[in-house]
Design brief:
Strand 5, helix 7 and strand 6 form a beta-alpha-beta unit. The chain has 14 helices and 12 strands. Helices cover 43% and strands 17% of the residues. A 7-stranded mixed β-sheet has the order 2-8-7-6-5-3-4, sandwiched between helices. The protein is globular. By secondary structure, the protein is α/β, with parallel strands linked by helices. The protein has 2 domains: 233 residues, Aspartate Aminotransferase, domain 2 (3-Layer(aba) Sandwich); 94 residues, Alpha-Beta Complex (Aspartate Aminotransferase, domain 1). It binds ligand TLP.
Length: 344
């Protein structure tokens, strides 16, 4: 089986497992885990922020980001395809008591004017608007990079209206790898940033939320309340630290393989946009049927989107640490056979 469902499916490498085995640990709820402390300092510096906090998942770091930037009854603005809105179990309402308002935008990019149009006047009838969430790269848009200038422009528009900005940077280092722009340049336009070690960077578990010192202190209280206070978690944090230290530099390999995969699929008649990073979206009128057929041919994929408003749906294929050139060739070959069978 060639598993292209997500870049979350990777197994830790030997070097990563060794780092985990040898990790110094302590009780992190007491702030005494030396590996977690090192990881938090490392990632804060990498993102150009004062402080960072380690948590089990990107969902948790996003939701702590929502929690620390809002109060109950507030409105959070985000893109209609945002992970925070679509794939986190309704957590903004569940955990922070906020309502979300979705905004349109090609490729996950919210134009400043779309944001300005959504701004409400000060009036007792209206919810307070306190936060804009942005995502880079954008998962549902197919791993698209949020161009830095556009990011800065919409962030400035948000701040002009007194909003804070949270960046879901689960795949922020893919944006860095695709553009050569350091991740911290996007972070300079956000108040809080979530990054994941468990996506393209290949760690088994772990995400961080970065921001200013006071906000991250608040995030420590929120993490405990959300059940994310961990004890000798240096054992997993060592895998995350290893991922940040050793695997950022190899992300371009995943992007090249995604391009090869897209080219190969196009050659077999599939409609595929050129990927900017490691996510390939294949257009399909019947995405669930295509996923089943690919699965029977030995390639695992997931649903991008279902067909809607006269537009085809998409099937998502991700390249990652455990996919080599041969796997890409085999996946292209299997997909070609599916295309031939479907044409019969
Ligand atoms: N995304 C997963 C699924 O939840 C869809 C995937 O396979 O891509 N932000 C973004 C942009 C993400 O893509 C994800 C994971 C998360 C946050 C949440 O991370 P975890 O899974 O660690 O909670």
């Amino acid at each position: 089986m060639i598993d292209l469902r997500s870049d979350t499916v990777t197994r830790p490498t030997d070097g990563m497992r060794r780092a985990m085995l040898e990790a110094d640990v302590g009780d992190d709820v007491f702030g005494e885990d030396p590996t977690i402390n090192r990881l938090e300092e490392y990632v804060a510096a990498l993102l150009g922020k004062e402080a960072a906090i380690y948590a089990p998942s990107g969902t948790m770091t996003n939701q702590i980001g929502v929690f620390v930037n809002t109060q109950r009854g507030d409105e959070v603005l985000l893109h209609e395809g945002a992970h925070v809105f679509n794939y986190e179990g309704g957590a903004p309402a569940l955990l922070s008591g906020v309502q979300v308002r979705t905004l349109p935008g090609e490729g996950g990019v919210i134009p400043p004017d779309a944001l300005r149009e959504a701004i409400r006047p000060e009036n007792v009838h209206f919810p307070r608007q306190r936060l804009l969430c942005l995502e880079n790269t954008h998962n549902r848009a197919g791993g698209k990079v949020f161009p830095l200038e556009d990011f800065a422009a919409v962030s400035e528009a948000a701040r002009d209206h007194g909003l804070k900005v949270h960046l879901d940077g689960a795949r922020l280092f893919n944006a860095q790898a695709a553009t050569g722009i350091p991740a911290r340049e996007w972070c300079a336009h956000a108040d809080t940033v979530s990054v994941c070690s468990s996506k393209g960077l290949g760690a088994p578990v772990g995400s961080l939320l970065a921001g200013d010192g006071e906000t991250i202190l608040g995030a420590r209280r929120a993490r405990k309340a959300f059940g994310g206070g961990m004890r000798q978690a240096g054992i997993i944090a060592a895998g995350s630290l290893y991922a940040f230290e050793h695997h950022i530099g190899r992300l371009p390999e995943d992007h090249e393989r995604a391009s090869k995969l897209a080219d190969g699929l196009r050659d077999s008649g599939y409609t595929v946009a050129p990927p900017e990073t490691n996510i390939v979206l294949v257009e399909s009128e019947d995405p669930t049927g295509l996923i089943e057929a690919l699965g029977r041919a030995g390639v695992l994929a997931t649903l991008g989107t279902m067909p809607a408003s006269g537009r085809p749906g998409t099937v998502r294929l991700c390249t990652h640490l455990d996919v080599d050139d041969e796997a890409v060739e085999d996946a292209v070959e299997a997909a070609a056979q599916v295309a031939v069978a479907n044409a019969r």
